[in-house]
Structure formats: structure tokens, C-alpha cells
Amino acid sequence: MTSALLEANNLVRVYQVRRGLLGTPTPVRAVNGVSIKLMPGETLGIVGESGSGKSTLGRMLLGIDPPQSGEVKFEGKPMAAPGTAEWRALRARMQFVYQDPLAALDRRLTIATQIGEPLDIHKLIPKEHRAARVEELMSAVGLRRDQAGRFPHELSGGQRQRAVIARALASRPRLLVCDEPVSALDVSIQAQVVNMLRDLQEQNRIAMIFISHDLKVVRNIADRVAVMYLGQIVEEASSDVIFQSPRHPYTEALVSSVPVPGRILEGRRILQGEPPNPANRPSGCAFHPRCPLASDICRTSAPDLRSIGGGRTAACHLVPGETAPVAA
Amino acid sequence: MIRFVLTRLLRAVITIFAVVTFAFVVLRMSGDPAQVMLGPDVPQDAVDAFRKAWGLDQPLWVQYLAYIKSIFSGDFGVSMRDEASALHLVLERIPATLQLTVPALLLKLLIGIPAGVYAALHRQSFADRGVILLAIFGFTIPSFVMGLLLVLIFSVILGVLPSGGQDTWMHSILPTITMSIGGIGILARFSRSAMIEVMGQPYIRTASAKGLKWSDVVWGHALPNAAVPIVTIVGFMVGSLIAGAVVVESIFSWPGIGRLLVVSVSNRDLAVVQCILLMIAATMVISNLVVDLLYGWLDPRLRAQTAH
Amino acid sequence: MTSADMAQKQSAQTQSARSGVLGLISYLRRHVPFSVGLGIFWLAAMVLVACFADALRPYGITAMDLTNRLASPGNAKHWLGTDELGRDVLSRLIQSIRVSLVIAFGATILSAVFGTALGFAAAKFRGAVEHLVLVLADFQAALPFLIMSLAVLAFFGSSMVLLVCLMGFYGWERYARIARGLAISASAQGYAAAVVQLGATPARVYLRHILPNVASTLIVSMTLTFPEIILMESGLSFLGLGVQPPETSLGNMVGFGREYLTRAPWIMLAPALVIMLTTLSISLVGDWLRDKLDPTVR
Questions:
Q1: Rounded to the nearest 5°, which phi and psi values hold at B290?
Q2: Inter-chain contact B307–A22, Cβ cutoff 8 Å?
Q3: Rounded CA separation C178/B150 (Å)
Q4: C199 to A107: CB separation less than 8 angstroms, yes or no
Q5: What is the CA radius of gyration of chain C?
Q6: Which has more pLDDT, B55 or A236?
Q7: Are A220 and A178 in contact (CB under 8 A)?
Q8: Kind and range of the H or E run holding C28
Q9: Residue A37 φ/ψ, nearest 5 degrees
Q10: Can you tell me the distance from the alpha carbon of B62 to that of B73, in angstroms, rounded to the nearest whole number?
């Protein structure tokens, strides 16, 4: 059995949020004890509403923000502290794809220069071969050769995101974290970019973390899916299984809200109540105020994430599990 | 709010302290006052005696500590030239300087701000263009050029006003005008742009759309909001009430602080120069502090931001 | 390729070059206000004068024509007249333009580099470094620059190098403030954060990415500092603490010309007019550039 490429144990990230002008800072647990394991070449989708902590989790997995407790291991070694030379060298092996490609690109440099920048930073290949490599990357992401000299504002949104992806792939990373990579794009472009990402990921055997609020997109690309609610993973399973038979009530609600062509929306569950506010976490199971099935135990005690058989995990009192809770 | 005031006070004290230290170090490092005071041909004993008398034979840091200590007891040193208290010499000259700078400041405020506001309310009109042009002229002409031009016209050619000295009120007319012209230009320009920016804000459009009288919109809504940037400039002008007259006093042989500074600097009269620098820094820092506090009062958002 | 072809190609090239120049001129005429055009013209003339001062000067700046002392302008030999020693005012004016522009230019660059570096340092390290920069800026604000330079120059004696270095401290806090603000906003989100995530060193992030992105704003603030430095230098020279004789600068000429205000006002008026027109032109062109390039600077 191969060892995990990325392993995160019990990650916690707390922000201090001040309410009002002179209010005392309240701690907000953006990520509250998340553990994740990612095999080489595997794609894990992370799904959740805004405020569920999924972007914060993505940044911690890449070592951009250090967790306040818990640890991230990449290829079996603990993540170096941000800003150190070791951390910088590690960037060649793990990359990030941003939600807003225009903000992620330097508007004063041509896209070819920017795509080649990781090669330059990490001195990966001799100078004379770099141009060829950039050309190869551009064609791999579907950019035309004549677009090399363009500036970001001269490209369309989809083309910009392709340039960002090409830049992320330049150093042949083993891990790619994509934070809502297509949500800023037109729907017609979204599918193209997602398919391209999947092809590139398969060809190059890159492990990928794909963060999105959009179930349709995640379903298309992920091998496994983790559903986050208020900083915690509430259910995790392989992508086919989770869409076929969601177990956690929150997942069920999410899945039932996705329209499927040819099927009448029946038994659709619409989430009630306020969207989650991480500054004001409910007691017990964080989901109970919106849960149609909530019972007394849900209001008082928080369920652990436990194995529920078939390689799946869920955190719900109402889902019968195997006896032992999954180790944190 | 109290914390905000306290942090600003602390920064003000640190700044004054930094100025005192800077002045002390630069002035002591730049050469031996004994040589300048006594001339090049005095015997070594006399130089040594002079140094001993003024404490110049001590290590620099001992001199510095002694200096700081005496400042706290209100003793700002003694002029090496006149053997009179430096503080006394400086205070003696302040009224003369204020006699020029205070009327000049009033002129700047009374002409500059209304002109800028008027121009902003009548954009693209003839008056607006005139104000802009005069404002640019006002602050691109150096005060010494302006002063000499005024002397040339009113004293040399027309012969109606005196060109220097401090005998009658007539003598203060030219220096006051010279000093105020640049400031009028700056204030007019700033008030105009601040006012134009405020007038473009949605709340002004709302105020006029809901049927408020135009004068109420201007006085009640626009001016108070435009005041924030204007106050900065005015604060700077108040702060330079003492320092701002160096060049003008020199043109018109006006016996104020600026002249004293230029003379003391060329005489290497350390105590007097230090005392003047301290005075200037204190006025500047205090007026900056007042501006910051006024800010908080004029714009509650700023208070909230700086408070934490 | 035949020679006819060559000739044709050449003429086509000259034609396109000519239409390029004409196009530029007509573009400027359409898009640049008249006053700004005059300002650009005057500044270009000043730069040319400064560059070719040696060739343009009819006499040496210390050459005395004792038979022609205090000659008035319009004199056949001395277009702008002579001073009390019979030195040619035009020659001295040309040299003064060079000296004053060189000082102002050098000092503007120094102050921009120094201020930007401190601003970036404050943005990069935050905490103690940022506080130190703020205290330095407070210090600068507390001691009017003219007063500080006066003390330093009088006690250390004036030299060209010291003068440029001292003037180089003028206005640095403006660049520091702008550079700090822009760098912080760039690294909080956006391209700078993305480049950091690529593994770039801080030097690369700041010099190759942030600096080019904030350059236009910094250049615009240089047009604010430049005339102020000219005024500052001429003020100091006027007080006798700036450029020292026999060298000459615009302020220094006004200062010495002042003695002869009644008998020979032209000695003082010529440099005074040049100072006014130059600072006026920079202000006009700078305002216009600011509107064009960068609406965020006031």
C-alpha cells in the first residue's frame, strides 16, 4: 500500500473577530478539528456553504496559513513554516489555483512570463529550454501560441484561469489545491475548465483538492468528497456513493437541491433557518437548528465523525455507525 | 477614545525627544564651538578653559545626560555669545514673529478657504478657472521671489511702503502679504478639491434630492465633511507659526525667531539653536496632535480605526 | 531585392516615420490642454539647456567684463545684462539652471528610492519596523525641513554632495506612505500573494512584481516633490547656505541679486522668472499626469 501524499491531523484555525467598535474580540473557529488524507493522484472534493471554513482549510493544507493546532504532513514530513527557504522550495511541489484569476495575475507581465515564473524561481530547467516548456504548458491548457505575449486584461476570464493553471503546473507539482477555480467563470466555460483540469490531473498523476460550493462541479471531478459544515467535516465518502445515497441530513439536503435532468424534483429538502455563522456556533450538533430530523441529543452533544461502513464516515447521531469512532 | 489620546500623546513625546536628541548630536558632531567663538589664534589654555567652562571637555553622552536633565528643570542653557539665558533670548523674539505669522494665517484662512469653496460650487465657471490659476501661481512662486518682487514694486518703484525693519505697522504689510500668498493658494486648492469630492458623494445628492435648501446642503452636509482634509493643512500652517518665517524675516530684516536662528546658526551658538529647534518641534507636534484629535471629532470613523 | 524596391521601401519607411511624428504632434494637440503643452515645452527647453549648458553659455560664469558692469539687458554683448562684477547674467543663468536641475533631480530620485525602500520594509516586516518608520515620519513632520537643513548645512558647511543628500531626505515620507499602503494591499490578496505562493523570495516579490505595479503612482508623486525641492534648494541658496560661490544656482543668483535690487533688478528677475516658470510647468504637467495616470493620489 502506498503512503499518503498529504495527511492532516485535527487542524484548528481560530480567528479573533471584533464586533462593533469597542467590543471584545470573540474567537471564531473557522476550522475546528479537521483530518484529511490524500493519496498520490487522488482527487478530493471539499464541499460546503460560504463560511464553512473550506477555503481556510485549503490554505492550511498548502502551508500558507499555519494551523493553530494539529499538523500537516506532506510526503510524510511536517510542513515547513511559511516564509522559510524550505517552505519556498516546497512550493515547486504543491500549487494553488485561485478563484479570481485576474487578481492572481500580475497585470504588468505577459502571461508567458508569468507561466514561466515558477521555472525561473526554482531554477528548474536551463534558461534556453524554458520558452519551449512554456509553449508546451500553454498548449496543454488550451491557450494559443499567439496569446503568449498578451497581458491578463487582454484575455477572457476562462483564458486567464487557464494561464493560472498553466503556471501552477509549470513546476510539475504533486499536489494542486483549487479554491473555487470555476465559480468566477461563465457556466459555459466552467465545464471546459473542469474537464481540462481532470484530464491534466490524470495525465500527470497530480493529487488534487478541489474546493467548491457547487456539487455538480465536484461530482464531475472528485474521487472522494468531504462535506464541511461550520468548520467540521460532517460526511466523507467516495463521490459516486455520496451522491447516490447521502447519509448525513445536511448532505442529503445539498444533494437533493441539485437538479438532475429527466427527473422530477420530488422529496426535495430545502434547508431551513439561518445560514451558518461561525461566530455563533450552536450547542451540540452544529447543524441541529436547521436539521429536519433533530432530536434532543442533537441539541446537547456534538456527534463525532465515525466510520459508518463501506469506507464512509459521517458525523450524525441518527446515522447508525460501526462501533468505534474514527480516530481523530 | 482615552487610549487613542494616550497613544497619540506618547508618540508626540517620543517625537519631541527624537528632535532634541537629533539636534544635540548633529550640533555637537559638527565641529568645535570654541574655535568659532574664540577665533583661530587664541592660545590653547584659553580654548581649554572655554571648553571646561561650557562642559565641552566631557564625553558626549555625559553632556547629553546633563542637557536632558537641565531641560526637565526648565533650564535650556545659556547662550555662548551673550551669556544670557537661551530661553529668554528666544522668548523675547517670539512676539515679533507672531506679529507677522498670525495675521498671515488669518489672511490665508479668510481668503483661501472661501475662494476654494466658491470655486468648487461654481465648477468650470470663469471664477473657478481664475481661482485655480491664481492658486497655482500662489504656491509655485517661492516666498523670497514674491517678497523681492513686492519690494521692487512697492518700495523701489512706487516708494509707498518700507522695504525692511519693524518700526511701524506699515513695515509689516509687505512681509505679511508675502507670507500669506503661498498659503492662500494651497488652501484654495485643497478646499476646492475636498469640496468637489464631497459634493459628488451620494449623501449630498440624497440631501438635495429630498428637497433640502441648497444652502443647508452646503453648510449642513458638505462643509463639515470637506473640513477633514482642510483641517490637516490648517494644522500644518498653525504648526509653522514659529518656523515659517525664516526666509521672509531674512528678506525684510524682521527681528524674529527666524533671524535669530540664522544668526545663531552662523555663530554656532549651540544652546540658542537647540532651544529654537525644540520650540519649533513642540509647536509642530502639538498642532499635529490637536489635528489628530480634531479628526476624531470630525470623523468618527477615523477614531474607530485608530483606536485599536 | 532590386534597388528600386529598396528605394521604395525606404521612402515608405521615412513616410511612416514622418506620419508617426506628425501623428504624435496632432495627438498631443488633441489631447493635451494648451497650458500643459506650454509646460511640457518649457520643461523640455530647460532640460536641453541643462544638458548643453557648456555649449550654450556665451561666457564663462566667472569671466568679468569690468568695462560693462551692471549693464542693463538688451546690451549687444550681454543679452540679459551683467552683474556688479561685469559677469554675464545669461551665462550664469544657464549654468544655474543646470546646477539647480541636477540637484533637484538627484534629490528627487534619492528621496523616492529611500522612501519606497522604507515603505516596503514597513509593509514586509510590520511590527517594530513599521513603528520605527512611523516615528521617523513623525520626526520629519515635527522639524520643518528648511530648519533642519539650515542647521545641518550651517554646522557642517555646504558642499554639493551634502546638499543633494540632504535634499534627498525631502518628502521621503510621502513615498514611504504610498509604497507601504500599496504593498500591504497587494500582499493581502492578489498577484503578490500568488507569487509568494509560487515560492518567490521577498526580494523577487517586491522588486519584480510590486515595484512595477506601484511605479506609476510613485512617478506621479515625484512630480509633486520635484518643484518643492527646487524651491527648497533655492530658498537655502538664497539664505547663503546652499550652493556656494563661485558655483551658482537659481536661488543663489536671486540671493546675490537682491543687493542690487534698486540699481540692477534684472540680476534677480531673470533667475526668479526661471524658477517660477519651471515650478509652474511641473505643477501643471504633474496635475495633468496625475489625472491621466493615477486618480488615487491627491
A1: -60, -40
A2: yes
A3: 38
A4: no
A5: 24
A6: A236
A7: no
A8: helix C3-31
A9: -135, 135
A10: 17
Cell reading at A302? 456534538
Query: How much is the pLDDT for B282?
Result: 85
Task: Report the chain B residue with the minimal C-alpha distance to residue C155.
Answer: B30
**Count of other CB atoms within 10 angstroms of residue C295:** 8
Dihedral sign (CA A186, A202, A221, A6) = negative
Pairing of strands A306-309, A232-238: unpaired
C-alpha cell recorded at residue C116: 519606497
Q: What number does CATH give the domain B94-255?
A: 1.10.3720.10
Whether ipTM > 0.90 holds is no
Express each pLDDT in A282-327 by its tens digit: 888 888 888 888 888 888 888 888 888 778 888 888 887 665 444 4
Please, how many CA atoms are within 13 Å of residue B16, restricted to the half-sphere of its CB?
A: 22
Q: Closest approach of chain C CAs to the CA of A281, in angstroms?
A: 28
Report d(CA A44, CA A52) in Å as an integer: 17
CA atoms within 13 A on the CB side of C141: 25
Q: What are phi and psi of B74, to 5 degrees?
A: 85, 10
CB C118 within 8 A of CB C206: no
Cell numbers for B306: 485608530
Cα–Cα dist A285/A300, whole Å: 7
| pLDDT 10s digits, C117-158 | 998 888 888 777 888 887 788 787 777 777 778 777 777 777
Give the C-alpha separation, C271 to A324, whole Å.
Answer: 92
Domain limits, chain B: 16-91, 94-255
**Helices C211-238 and C172-188, axial angle in degrees (round to 10):** 170
Report the candidate in A127, A8, A110 with the shortest Cα–Cα distance to residue A56: A8
Which distant-in-sequence residues (6+ apart) come within 8 Å of B304 by Cβ?
Answer: A21
For chains A and C, what is the number of CB pairs under 8 angstroms? 51
Which residues in chain C have Cβ-Cβ distances shorter than 8 Å to B265?
150-151, 154-155
- How many angstroms separate the CA atoms of A264 and A308, rounded? 30
Cα B21 → chain centroid? 21
Cα C141 to Cα A197, B276, C117: the distances in Å are 55, 16, 19
Give partners of A (≥3 CB pairs < 8 A). B, C
Rounded Cα distance, B182 and B188, in Å: 10
Closest approach of chain C CAs to the CA of A245, in angstroms?
38
CA dist A324 → A33, A73, B65 (Å): 18, 25, 73
Nine-digit cell at A328? 481523530
- Provide φ and ψ at A3, rounded to 5°: -85, 160
CB contact under 8 A, B307 and A18: no
Q: Say which amino acid occupies C69.
A: R
- Contact: B280, C238; criterion CB under 8 Å: no
Question: Over the stretch A139-197, which tens digit does the pLDDT of each residue have?
Answer: 999 898 888 888 888 888 889 999 999 999 998 999 999 998 888 888 888 888 999 99
Q: Which three cell numbers stand for residue B70?
A: 537641565
Given this model, what pLDDT does residue A207 score? 92
Residues A8-37: tens digit of each pLDDT:
888 888 887 665 445 566 777 888 888 988
What is the DSSP code string of A214-264? -HHHHHHH-SEEEEEETTEEEEEEEHHHHHHS--SHHHHHHHHTS--TTS-
Looking at the partner chain, which of A95, A96, A105 has a beta carbon nearest the beta carbon of C191? A105
β A312-314/A232-238 pair status: antiparallel
- CB contact under 8 Å between C147 and B277, yes or no, is yes
How large a percentage of chain A has pLDDT more than 70? 89
